[in-house]
Amino acid sequence: MDPMHRQGAGEARERLAALLQERLRDPATAQMIRRSLDAGVVMDTWLAGQREENFTPEALAVIEEAVGILTAQAYGSVFPNYHLSERYLTVAFHELLSSIAMFQAHREKGTLEVGEGEAAGAVERLRAFVAAEPTGLSVPVGLYWLVTSYENYGALAHYGRMPEEDFRFGTFHRPWIKSTLTEEMNLARLMGHLETRYPCPEGQCVILTPEGRRVLEQIRRLLEDSGELAWRMQQQHLALFNELEDYDELMARIAPTVNPETERFLDFAGLRPGQKVLELGCGTGRMTLNVGLYRRVLPGGRVVATDPSTNMLARAGSKARELGAANVEFLRSPAENLPFSDGAFDATVGMVFLHFTDAPRAVREAVRVTKPGGTVALGVAIRSDAAMMPVLPVWFEPIFALARSRGMAPTGVGNRPGEAAQLLREAGCVAVHTVPVQVPVVAVDPVSFVRWALQGPGFFQEVLEPLPYAERLRLVGELQEAGREICRRATLEERTWLWPGEYVRGSAPGPD
Ligand SMILES: C[S@@+](CC[C@H](N)C(=O)[O-])C[C@H]1O[C@@H](n2cnc3c(N)ncnc32)[C@H](O)[C@@H]1O
User: Fold this and answer.
1) Which CATH architecture has domain 247-507?
2) In 29-164, which ranges are E strands?
């Protein structure tokens, strides 16, 4: 018999609830989550949400074999005084390994397709991590417990109640799950976080208890403090860019003046022939190639263009080959951690990427790799609640309502006005100069605008983040549908948003 069933329910409930509270209150838990993130041992339900049949049969076989071994090792020994069921552990290790493998595929290849190599890599990564952790397998299982409770309870909090069958199959919040969430439901019910109510209109329904709501809030705070929620958001932005197949076309449609505007930015940056220039957040190489950054440094100069999105870079690379732009090198790197020595470049530039980064770190890195007296120039999107597209308050009301209900500022995407200049000064730059700009963004048609708004700049992603998976998809569909009528009736002017921005330039500090 399963040890869980041998334990008396009341006693087990107390032990488990005490264990959870201990975890939630112990500062070591946030550190443990940070260590897992650093080691790439991740439980990312958003990325997982984009998996369809993305695993090859060979990859699945590798994962299944490892799940069997890990479950046998973990059974009866993960938590002190409480035995998780074998079934719970099997699902947990399956989900964890899948998530780690997808994360790797996403980072290395820019796709979410997992082959045997990524699967074996995930198993190795988890084993190495666990071997270095004093409490071994209890760390990833604890991570799984916390993240999935956040997801499960969050969905219930959103819907109010859910038919038990839908909860068990994750219909609305984790539809990709191959097995069922029965064990997770049982565990939550045992702790008094969930209750099954019968009858309700849809049959037997699951609801979140007041205690469940309290725990959800505690977990949310822990995931926020540990950086897990911010990390998740960053992954989501990256996944969106990785999957934005037609970025250049979408930009040309939505922001028709963006290329001439970017030329003005390059004038502002004052680049000269012969210089060695670093570009950050280059994406598909729109500024690098289409707008001609690479030509500005000829003859003799060269450009190293970086971005963390493998897929965007792949597109940039093929454009460069077509153009014969031999003085450009594309390299995968986030702006916060650049693989270059101090002062390696004459100038460092970047366009509308800063708000996706940890801005203080990214600016410090940009200044570090620029030679003393060299230019650092940034094109920055500015977060502004004012002067938005006239039709947007009505069109995007479901999103604004959600934002209001959570006390969030609904419209901002971008950096604060003056933020980039301040960061440049803090990093030691002198002669910092800012020019305000406006770039018109037009809702030419509802489908491309909603895609751009939610996928391009990742606009509103923070508002969508706590929604269950199916709800996010439904909302995108609803916005596109509502936009049909709005785009038919409203004038082009009413569908135009003068997006505020800043061009900011400074000189990297000289030697003391
Ligand atoms: C709106 S696109 C801009 C691309 C390009 N600069 C342009 O103007 O067309 C934002 C880019 O920022 C990149 N990005 C996301 N996170 C980043 C990070 N941590 N460091 C640098 N770039 C990042 C995305 O991959 C994406 O290519």
Assistant:
1) 3-Layer(aba) Sandwich (3.40)
2) 161-163
